[in-house]
Design goal:
The protein has 13 helices and 19 strands. By secondary structure, the protein is an alpha+beta fold. It has one domain: 2-Layer Sandwich (Uridine Diphospho-n-acetylenolpyruvylglucosamine Reductase, domain 3). α9 runs antiparallel to α10. The longest helix is centred in the C-terminal third of the chain and has 20 residues.
């Protein structure tokens, strides 16, 4: 493992949620980090099912932005954390509203890009179907899920893009192109995981799976044994699965929990209906999660409830749809002085032990509060130009809590650089929707086709109309 002593660099400016509006009273938008307050020229919410009217308005926004030399970006929930959804001084568009056309015979559906996952689940559930793969929370938009090529916890699957059959994409000149693996495949591979830099996703044709009752199994093991057992479960018939690691000291990353779900017989009266009470993570679960900063005892108690109490009480069973219908809001941070920041790393399974050692070395030494790590299995998918899953990967989704100030932001940048450096040295990669703390050379090491992507984007969009902070940080120049 190379040295993790990295050269210092200037801390990028941060925008706090309390930032005042620009002097000319332009709108100021932020993302889930609450650190990305950004003035925009205009903000339009593309809501409703009148698709012809929405397309006409999108073309008008494109023309206005193009003539004035302003950037444009389309997003949904703005759950990114580094300005990836925010066009500075440009045209911000929020995609909203669900238009969905299911095709049960083909086991697929066409949905508008602004559809939220909870809306898709609500439409598919009465038909006996479920999304084949979706993002881990249900309050995000489908087009955005494709644009970041997010993944979920059903198995065995690659990222969400692996279940998308086709998309309609509006290019910078306002033309609309249908893209798939066989029709305009180059555009399809650029748009999948392309962060909206190649065009506006209008709608998607997506695979669906039968809904089913799922029964969980909980297995506790030393963390060193987790990777091979996780791989065996993913490849051996588990329908859904995830893992957790003990984050309490002095047991940090020493113990693992593997949770697998397998289909159970359908009850005589049929499957339970969709639970509309707001998801599983409320009440005690939320209180324990939010009480963790500064309290090691709470981290130990939370681990006990996950590894011992929940299995003993038989918690976790449910239909596929009910298990996935969980909003991010349930665990959201509501402390006005702190924010939750996500990291995600994709590790080759045979290097997972070295990843654990890296994390033990650098995370406890950081002054930041570590709240959680969830482990997911993601099958290989080399389709996107900006792929993060060139091989089968274990995805480690990490949640940290930091104060809304420059000191903690500097600490987060240092931690991010060290983790990215170590993961890339293991042949892994990191996810791009979060804080843009990695160095440009680290980004290019994790995404070796970055120059190819940037050149293709410039050919498609020579005026750089579709632009946001990710382009400026890692791909411009």
């Amino acid at each position: 493992m190379p040295s993790l002593a990295l050269p210092r660099r200037a801390l990028p400016a941060i925008g706090l949620a309390t930032a005042a509006a620009a002097s000319d009273a332009r709108p100021v938008l932020n993302d889930a980090s609450r650190l990305s307050a950004t003035p925009v020229f205009s903000h339009w919410v593309a809501r409703g099912d009148a698709q012809a009217a929405i397309i006409a308005r999108l073309r008008a926004e494109l023309a206005s932005a193009r003539s004035a030399g302003r950037p444009l970006a389309v997003s949904a929930a703005r759950h990114s954390m580094g300005g990836q959804s925010l066009p500075r001084d440009g045209h911000a568009i929020t995609a909203d509203g669900c238009v969905l056309e299911p095709d049960a015979a083909a086991r697929q559906y066409r949905a508008s890009a602004g559809s939220r996952w909870h809306e898709v689940i609500a439409r598919l559930d009465p038909l006996g179907f479920s999304p084949a793969v979706m993002q881990s929370n249900s309050d995000f938009g489908l087009g955005a899920t494709f644009a970041v090529n997010a993944h979920g916890w059903p198995a065995p699957h690659g990222p969400f893009g692996s279940t998308v059959q086709a998309i309609r994409l509006m290019l910078a000149d306002g033309s609309i192109v249908e893209c798939s693996r066989t029709q305009e495949p180059a555009l399809f591979t650029l748009a999948m995981g392309g962060y909206g830099l190649t065009g506006i996703i209008l709608d998607l044709v997506v695979g669906m799976a039968p809904n089913a009752l799922m029964q969980p199994s909980f297995t506790v093991m030393p963390a060193a044994e987790f990777a091979p057992r996780f791989a065996a479960a993913a490849r051996g018939g588990a329908a859904m699965l995830y893992g957790r690691l003990n984050i309490s000291r002095p047991f940090f990353f020493q113990e693992a929990l593997l949770v697998t779900y397998t289909p159970a017989p359908t009850p005589e009266g049929g499957l339970p209906g969709l639970d509309r009470s707001g998801g599983r993570y409320g009440g005690l679960t939320r209180r324990l999660y939010r009480a963790q900063p500064g309290l090691e005892g709470m981290k130990q108690l939370r681990w006990f409830t996950e590894r011992s109490l929940a299995p003993a009480l038989g918690l976790g069973a449910g239909t596929r749809n009910n298990l996935m219908n969980e909003p991010a809001e349930n665990l959201a941070n509501r402390d006005p002085h702190r924010t939750d920041i996500l990291h995600e790393y994709f590790i080759p399974p045979d290097r997972f032990g070295e990843f654990l050692a890296l994390c033990r070395r650098v995370i406890p030494a950081s002054p930041l509060e570590f709240l959680n790590v969830t482990l997911r299995w993601v099958e290989r998918d080399e389709t996107p130009v900006l792929t993060w899953s060139g091989t089968d990967r274990i995805a480690a989704v990490m949640s940290f809590s930091q104060r809304l100030n420059g000191e903690d932001e500097a600490a987060m940048m240092r931690l991010s650089e060290m983790l990215v450096e170590g993961v890339v040295a293991l042949g892994g990669s990191f996810y791009l929707p979060y804080r843009l703390h990695a160095r440009r050379e680290q980004f290019r090491a994790a995404y070796p086709r970055a120059d190819e992507f940037a050149a293709a984007k410039r050919r498609l969009d020579p005026g750089l109309l579709f632009r946001h902070a990710l382009w400026d940080q890692w791909l411009s120049g």
